[in-house]
Design a protein that fits this description.
The structure holds 2 protein chains of 2 kinds. Chain A is an alpha/beta fold. Chain A has 11 helices and 15 strands. In chain A, the strands form 5 sheets. A 7-stranded parallel sheet of chain A has the order 3-2-1-4-5-7-12, sandwiched between helices. Chain B has 23 helices and no strands. In chain B, helix 12 crosses helix 16 and helix 22 runs antiparallel to helix 23. Chain B is elongated and about 135 Å long. The termini of chain B are far apart. In chain B, 37% of the residues are buried. Classes of the chains: A alpha/beta, B mainly alpha. Chain A: One of its GO terms (cellular component) is endoplasmic reticulum membrane. Chain A: GO terms for molecular function: 3-beta-hydroxysteroid dehydrogenase [NAD(P)+]/C4-decarboxylase activity. Chain A: It is found in: Endoplasmic reticulum membrane.
């Protein structure tokens, strides 16, 4: 167990790939906080944003799709641990996902295998088991991946393929250990995908609508907890590396395994949105909320999507949004609790407070800049 | 007899009436006590049981004969202890040694207590306590030991509490949440432990329940906390306060402010926090019920729990609790009893139903809004873990898990597509070739394709134009051609 109070060991030299991104930068901060004697190098396409001022951290511009450059860099850095969080934005074209998620990950694996890296932690996604028809009710790691033709999101397919590549590379060579973290619904300071649209719905006065009965439970995960999951994974892989060639028992193994990491606190979908709205300043009483039937909203979404498609724009209500807001999507994280000793560092409500405050302040800053 | 008001109520709430009738008509006790074999003193004990406990007597009376008397005596012993503790007319110097020594008193033949105030409602039980002692001594030694141990610990806990109250250490009642749960532990958590030990002793419950002590603790805590929440007004009128200061002081400065109409929102937020504290135990209670092996014991444990979660729902976001005693309706109570006397899955459904009712009323601007959602989600997730609503899906399509496999599958799909195209072309080619040969042979043999073609055209024309007025002579024309075709 990685208890909070006992001095936490150094992770040696960690390279955080994508360390200037949303999750990556939080991982860098948490390593500095929890493992102060660890050396950190960040590899990112551009290292100008989200830079950490700590002298422990060095920044390196680089492209993971360039294998030769990666090999040179790793030969020079000689990292013990690679935490690979780099991923292109969800909306980008398929070719980019192929290039970065699959090819980039394979390049990183190849370079790491060649340069004596001990532990490789990959940031996968909880969506790799989410198909177009199923709901995720208390889903665990036994659920099969949904990929290829069955998976409507090409991004998710490439994340799944990359995860498999990472796990298959485990113990080749025998001293190279890998695992994958599958986070669900990451939010927090600096997130661009989850909190901003919810907050902007409040700014547009859309908090009076609710689609569906709000009985669907959803996993949202505060970013620091996801970062913590990665650090625990790295720590366990290093420990397994230390006891090589002994292989841990099957039910204790971390290497070659995937883990769901969430806050372990599923909440009703609209409750999360309302908590965010409240934090952003909304005071609309529950009695002032209009409940739209799910099927009705689906119909409206379909009509609007077609109309707006003709105009070349995206409407306020889409079928995908309707589906997500009425979907059960929560996971069983017992495996991470047992094998990684994971428990969330930050409770969900505290995470919402921190995240929303950051976004509201950021909005104000942006507005000031515009005024000037 | 039901009054006019009741009749009017049931006339507009027929489902409530239906539940009551169903319960009265269809519920058969799992076990029935056999009065003919009972001694006089035991009959007297059951008389007291009926008098002192209106909510528990029914479930106790249906218990399995192996534990029926033990549980009844256990209840009466604790009720005696409680009657002495509650009585404000007894001075501390007198009260404290009795409370601390009560586990020995229950072994003294003929002991009675007549010094309760005249208004103490269970006074008569203490006056005739010798009958309880007489029956206690007839119990199995193992059962006696359990009752004695719990009595000792509860008596000392109560003595500490009374002493603190007397010396003004907590003159405001309970201070911290820890004190509050400590109090609930003494008056209810210990009962949970005692009952669990009796059940396990008689093989009516899984021995693992004794190792997971937090489970039976939660059983007692949940019931007691719900009572404390529901009885806020009644206790306040009796000058007693069990809501911990740690919680109410976040919302109001003085406890009595909770009852002022202008503080409605604060009072509701405070009650939400109390309800949240209880609600966090719901999953443990269900877990506990999973360890019960005998139907009557299951009913005994499950009915009060179902009532408790329904009461929580009735109190949640309900400002009436600060004005009067809020109760669940008789119809709902009967419905709950019907559902709590069958199996764990049904009780889980009850919990899920009330959990969702609570969650739907939750106020987004309550300080504990998200915490309440989390507690509800936790209960639902627990139910899902013991009774999964769906199996992990089977990967029927054999989705590719890596890019190589995906590429191979794609290539295979492509190949099989071309294979199909080749196959169809081959079939069509063969048909065309053979038909061609046949036509050529027929031509050499003198077939008149020009006539056949013309005939076909006419027939087509007939098919589409026969009913129209395009060509009136068409029927005539067809005649010779049909002759030809006979050639």
């Amino acid at each position: 167990m990685a208890a909070g109070r006992t001095p936490v060991p150094s992770l040696g030299h960690v390279t955080v790939v994508g360390g200037c991104g949303f999750l990556g930068s939080h991982i860098v901060s948490l390593i500095i906080k929890r493992h102060p004697s660890t050396r950190i190098s960040v590899l990112d396409l551009r290292t100008s944003s989200n830079r950490n001022a700590s002298p422990q951290v060095s920044y390196h511009d680089g492209d993971i799709t360039d294998l030769a450059a990666l090999k040179t860099l790793f030969a020079e850095l000689k990292p013990d641990v690679i935490i690979h969080t780099a991923s292109p934005h969800f909306h980008l074209p398929a070719a980019v996902h192929d290039k970065v998620n699959i090819e980039g990950t394979k390049n990183l694996l190849a370079a790491a295998q060649e340069t004596g890296v001990k532990a490789f932690v990959y940031t996968s996604s909880a969506s790799v088991i989410l198909g177009p028809e199923t709901e995720l009710v208390n889903a665990n790691e036994d659920w099969p991946m949904v990929t290829g033709a069955a998976q409507p999101e090409y991004y998710t397919t490439t994340k799944a393929y990359a995860e498999t590549a990472v796990l298959e590379a485990n113990r080749t060579p025998t001293s190279f250990l890998t695992c994958a973290i599958r986070p669900a619904g990451i939010f927090g300071e600096g997130d661009v995908q989850l909190l901003p649209p919810i907050i902007s719905a409040f700014r547009k006065g859309q908090t009076k609508f609710q689609v569906g009965a709000n009985d669907n439970l959803f996993d949202f995960t505060y970013v620091e907890n996801v970062a913590y999951g990665h650090l625990l994974a790295a720590q366990h892989l290093l420990h397994t590396h230390k006891i090589l060639p002994t292989v841990p028992l099957d039910h204790e193994r971390v290497d070659g395994e995937a883990f769901f990491i969430t806050n372990g606190q599923p909440v009703y979908f609209w409750d999360f949105a309302r908590a965010v709205w409240h934090e952003a300043g909304d005071r609309r009483p529950l009695s002032g909320v209009w409940k739209l039937d799910r099927d009705f909203a689906m119909g409206v979404g379909a009509v609007l999507e077609n109309l707006f498609w003709a105009l070349g724009r995206t409407p306020n209500i889409t079928r995908k949004q309707v589906r997500y807001s009425t979907l059960n999507k929560y996971h069983n994280i017992d495996k991470a609790k047992r094998r990684l000793g994971y428990a969330p560092l930050v409770q969900l409500d505290e995470g919402v407070r921190r995240g929303v405050r950051w976004h509201v302040e950021n909005e104000a800053k942006q507005a000031q800049k515009k005024d000037q | 007899m039901p009054g006019v008001k009741d009749l009017a109520y049931y006339a507009v709430h027929p489902t409530q009436l239906r539940s009551i009738i169903q319960w009265k008509v269809w519920h058969n006790p799992v076990h029935e006590r056999d009065e003919s074999k009972e001694s006089e003193s035991l009959k007297r004990c059951f008389h007291f049981l009926a008098q002192t406990s209106r909510s528990f007597v029914a479930v106790i009376l249906e218990l399995h004969p192996d534990i029926l008397v033990s549980v009844a005596i256990f209840y009466l012993v604790l009720r005696g202890l409680d009657t002495i503790e509650d009585d404000m007319t007894i001075p501390l110097a007198k009260k404290e040694p009795i409370l601390r020594d009560f586990h020995n008193i229950i072994e003294q033949d003929g002991w009675t207590f007549t010094e309760n105030g005249p208004n103490e409602k269970d006074r008569q039980l203490c006056v005739e306590f010798n009958v309880v002692i007489e029956e206690y001594k007839k119990l199995k030694p193992t059962h006696q030991a359990i009752i004695k141990d719990i009595t000792k610990r509860m008596g000392n806990g109560m003595a500490d509490y009374v002493k603190n109250a007397e010396f003004g250490i907590d003159d405001n009642g309970v201070n911290t949440v820890k004190d509050y749960e400590q109090y609930c532990h003494y008056v209810a958590g210990l009962v949970g432990e005692g009952c669990t030990r009796l059940f396990v002793e008689e093989g009516k419950a899984n021995p693992a329940l004794l190792k997971r002590t937090e489970l039976h603790e939660s059983m007692g805590q949940f019931l007691q906390q719900v009572n404390i929440i529901r009885d806020i007004k009644e206790d306040f009128d009796d000058k007693r306060r069990f809501w911990p200061k740690e919680i109410w002081s976040k919302h109001v400065d003085n406890f009595e402010d909770l009852f002022k109409p202008e503080n409605k929102d604060k009072a509701l937020a405070c009650s939400s926090e109390m309800i949240l504290t209880a609600l966090r135990r719901a999953d443990d209670c269900l877990f506990f019920l999973a360890g019960i092996k005998e139907q009557s014991v299951f009913n005994f444990c499950a009915i009060p729990q179902s009532m408790a979660i329904a009461t929580l729902d009735a109190c949640f976001q309900n400002h009436d609790i600060f004005k009067r005693n809020v109760k669940i309706t008789k119809g709902d109570a009967c419905q709950l009893m019907l559902e709590s006397t069958q199996n764990l899955q049904l009780v889980c459904e009850v919990f899920k139903r009330y959990t969702r009712k609570i969650h739907k009323k939750s106020n987004p601007h309550d300080p504990n809004f998200l915490q309440i959602s989390i507690a509800c989600g936790k209960t639902e997730q627990f139910i899902e873990s013991i009774f999964p609503s769906q199996k992990p899906p089977v990967d029927e399509k054999k989705n590719p898990t890596n890019v190589e496999e995906a590429a191979r599958l794609k290539k295979e799909a492509e190949e099989s597509k071309w294979e199909t195209i080749y196959m169809i072309s081959a079939v069509i080619g063969t048909v065309v070739f053979i038909s061609g040969i046949m036509l050529v042979v027929a031509w050499f043999a003198g077939a008149r394709f020009d006539i056949a073609l013309g005939q076909a055209k006419e027939q087509l024309g007939q098919l589409f134009g026969s009913s129209g007025s395009i060509n009136a002579s068409a029927p005539l024309d067809t005649k010779p051609s049909t002759d030809h075709s006979e050639l």
